[in-house]
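Reply to dn_fold:

You asked what the input looked like. This is it:
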Amino acid sequence: MSKHRILYFQDNIQITLEERNNKVRGKFRHLARQVSREVFDVPEENLILFAYEKQTHVGQMSFSLPDMSLTDPGVTFDSEYYPQISFMFVLKDFQSMGFGRLMLNQALKMIAEVCSMRPVRLQSAIDAVPFFQKCGFQIVSQPIQCFHSGSRLFKTLVNMELEIQSTKGDNT
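and this is what came back:
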């Protein structure tokens, strides 16, 4: 049985933080394949959130916290210096129902507790850019064409970032 912590629960909707293990990785890959027709694995050192409606697994995301020992981001967009959203998948029948925003908000709270002085970064599939813009992310470069991507969803990626505020000392 996987260890998990409930981060949000209301009206039969639950967001959990789950331990990265083989069972959880398999569950992650399965839903990723349902959404994208590709198998994506949880990157090493990523935290994993799952969204459930009435105990049905309907969404998931993985993200990383920054390496606070690094003093310089280096030259690439994808650097361990920054907190990053790696993947977010929500089953088609459950999209536009708030599951993505709930997972993102929980991840941003966890990131802000560790580091609020570095922007959160992600490489969004082109179709998901409007969602992330509604959540406050800004486009920071021209779209990238991924010629070797097997998935139609990830043929064009857009680098985006979000400045976050610290929640330390916040009593809300």
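The chain has one domain: 4-162.
Hope that clears it up.
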